Amino acid sequence: MKKNVLSFGTPKELEANRIAEIQSISYLERLERLIAIIEVSYMLKTAKVIQSKKR
After folding, report:
1. What is the spatial distance between Cα 24 and Cα 7, in angstroms, rounded to a whole number?
2. Between 44 and 49, whose confidence is greater?
3. Contact assessment for residue 22 and residue 30, using Cβ atoms and an 8 Å cutoff
4. What is the CA radius of gyration of the chain?
5. What is the domain partition of the chain in residue ranges?
6. What is the pTM of this model?
7. What is the pLDDT of residues 3-40, one digit of tens each?
8. The Cα angle at residue 44 between residues 34 and 50, in degrees rounded to 5
9. Alpha helix stretches (DSSP H) within the chain
């Protein structure tokens, strides 16, 4: 996987770049990314909130 680079541009340019990137990867890579997003989402949903102690 190539290194991510921050890109600046208009929203249309950024969206076009993102669409081109997604179309260039294989079905399996797309599925892996989706599973990773689902896992992170589930972890955030079920994580316990750590409250800071105020003294």
Report:
1. 18
2. 44
3. yes
4. 17
5. 1-55
6. 0.56
7. 666 777 888 998 998 899 888 999 999 999 999 999 99
8. 160
9. 11-24, 27-46
